């Protein structure tokens, strides 16, 4: 495996900083989502505990203080929400440089930037500098990843830490520090989101595959190779970091961790529109993650990913058949870490309401595999002429970059050439919105035309996201939040299965459509005004 030099590290820093600046400059147009509203509230609760920690440390660790400040939103670990809180305390409340919601979005942008930088480093180590750079830019110009990179949420963050743990795993070596580092990074990963809990399973499959020659059957008994140190490190340090990072767990760790795991094992299902069918309850189609990858990633990326996956799989099969591995153990690891998240979501009872974000953690690895196939093809097409190599590489990246630019800030509903873009996907009956962020583009009309103290029903835009709009000055402070359309003067409905009733109700209740947010001629959200 290739070792990294100072140039690689500087290039990774440049990629990360450039990505962060790009996301920061584009964040203002990205509407606040339903989940962000919950995380803003959680961060403000946790921020009160940090205030107490800095002013009266002895009181901060009492159960009364912990339960009063950390009980909200126990469905998710708090590493990212704590960073949201600290960013709010520092950049908003202390320095006054940013409004609160924007400050709370900064850590999410930072983690998305980290994902791009780490993708480069892993691609560089596994293959070449050019492969790493191509994979990192493919990730940056993946429209749905690009959208999530602006959020105060966990999806771009868990994508970053997924790659970080893989990097720590392949670089652990034989040293104690290498294994300790792996355990600590894994702890931070499971403190980010529960997706990372599956990494020991993935590594376990990889280890069993790599150690297959050391399983010995002697005298009717199976002799196993010794348990590797990475198992010990991840098994001890990971849970320890997880426990230490979350004050809510401290008063009753067993009961509260059990509740947390149970919540995700029995997660509720939200509806998804998939080829014209509203999917409300399992079983869900096993094709869902694979089809969604195919129609949301640029077509050139999909072709390279399929060809690269088949190439890597064939090389692993040949190595297994011939018993000569060389570097194929790393190829097998890439296949596992890229495809396992999608295989998991393909289970018929696994919730699928998150679009592509629920298995987005496998995307950087898939793009490394795609780039490893694409780069030799680019060299062949360019005839090893440097200027032509750059031109062909630009054409490989151009579809993703153009689609990202055209669909921003509605990348959550982005579809690529294979679906015929957003318009083609609408004709196919695919999901457009599910988080409520598209209300952002309708606020100017509400600010201009709504009467003083008018009541607004914003459908999937919840109360805390509503307050965030008012805090940032994007929505007039006098306007009031209505919890249902029957109490509203204005209403916004999003074009998703569970909002069909809202449009029907508004149309039947003297509400008149007055505006819509459209991308490629396809409505994402519609604004209704109550007629006198």
General description of the model:
With 532 residues, this protein is α/β, with parallel strands linked by helices. It has helices at residues 6-26, 34-55, 57-60, 63-70, 79-94, 100-126, 129-140, 143-148, 155-170, 176-190, 199-210, 229-245, 253-265, 288-296, 299-322, 328-345, 363-382, 386-407, 421-428, 443-449, 463-471, 500-508, and strands at residues 216-218, 221-223, 272-274, 277-279, 455-457, 480-481, 490-494, 511-519, 522-530. It folds into two domains: 6-367, no CATH class; 437-530. It has 22 helices and nine strands. It has a five-stranded mixed sheet with strand order 6-5-7-9-8. The protein has a two-stranded antiparallel ribbon with strand order 1-2. Helix 6 packs antiparallel against helix 7, helix 7 crosses helix 17 (363-382) and helix 9 (155-170) runs antiparallel to helix 10. The protein is globular, with a radius of gyration of 24 Å. The protein starts with 5 loop residues before the first helix and ends with a strand. The model has no long low-confidence stretch (mean pLDDT 93).
């Amino acid at each position: 495996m290739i070792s990294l030099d100072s140039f690689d590290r500087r290039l990774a820093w440049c990629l990360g900083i450039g990505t962060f600046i790009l996301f920061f400059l584009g964040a203002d147009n990205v509407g606040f989502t339903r989940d962000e509203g919950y995380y803003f509230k959680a961060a403000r609760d946790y921020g009160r505990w940090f205030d107490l920690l800095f002013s009266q440390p002895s009181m901060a660790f009492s159960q009364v203080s912990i339960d009063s400040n950390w009980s909200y939103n126990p469905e998710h670990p708090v590493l990212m929400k704590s960073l949201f809180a600290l960013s709010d305390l520092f950049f908003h409340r202390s320095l006054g440089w940013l409004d609160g919601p924007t400050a709370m979005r900064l850590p999410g942008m930072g983690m998305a930037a980290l994902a791009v930088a780490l993708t480069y480093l892993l691609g560089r180590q596994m293959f070449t500098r050019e492969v790493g750079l191509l994979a990192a830019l493919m990730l940056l110009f993946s429209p749905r990843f690009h959208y999530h990179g602006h959020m105060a949420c966990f999806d771009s963050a868990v994508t970053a830490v997924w790659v970080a743990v893989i990097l720590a795993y392949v670089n652990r070596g034989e040293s104690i520090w290498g294994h300790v580092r792996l355990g600590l990074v894994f702890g931070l990963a499971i403190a980010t989101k529960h997706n990372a809990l599956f990494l020991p399973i993935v590594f376990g499959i990889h280890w069993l595959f790599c150690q297959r020659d050391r399983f010995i059957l002697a005298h009717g008994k199976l002799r196993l190779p010794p348990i590797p140190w990475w198992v010990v490190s991840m098994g001890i340090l990971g849970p320890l970091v997880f426990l230490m990072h979350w004050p809510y767990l401290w008063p009753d760790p067993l009961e509260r961790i059990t509740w947390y795991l149970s919540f995700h094992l029995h997660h509720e299902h939200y509806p998804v529109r998939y080829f014209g069918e509203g999917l409300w309850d399992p079983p869900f189609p096993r094709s869902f993650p694979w089809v969604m990858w195919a129609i949301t990633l640029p077509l050139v990326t999909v072709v390279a990913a399929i060809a690269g996956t088949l190439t890597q799989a064939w090389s692993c099969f040949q190595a297994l058949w011939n018993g000569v591995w060389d570097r194929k153990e790393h190829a097998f690891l890439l296949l596992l870490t890229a495809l396992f998240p999608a295989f998991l979501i393909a289970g018929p009872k696994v919730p699928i309401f998150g679009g592509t974000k629920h298995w987005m953690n496998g995307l950087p690895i898939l793009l490394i595999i795609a780039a490893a196939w694409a780069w030799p093809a680019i060299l062949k097409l360019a005839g090893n002429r440097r200027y032509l190599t750059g031109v062909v590489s630009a054409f490989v990246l151009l579809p993703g970059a153009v689609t990202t630019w055209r669909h921003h800030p509605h990348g959550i509903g982005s579809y690529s050439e294979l679906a015929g873009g957003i318009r083609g996907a609408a004709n196919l009956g695919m999901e457009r919105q599910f988080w409520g962020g598209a209300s952002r583009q309708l606020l100017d009309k509400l600010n201009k035309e709504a009467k003083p103290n008018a009541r607004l029903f914003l459908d999937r835009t919840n109360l805390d996201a509503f307050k965030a709009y008012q805090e940032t000055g994007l929505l007039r402070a006098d306007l009031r939040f209505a919890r249902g359309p029957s109490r509203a003067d204005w209403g916004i409905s999003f074009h998703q299965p569970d909002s069909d009733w809202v449009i029907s109700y508004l149309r039947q209740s003297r509400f008149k459509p007055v505006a819509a947010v459209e991308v490629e001629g396809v409505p994402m959200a519609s604004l209704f005004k109550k007629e006198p």
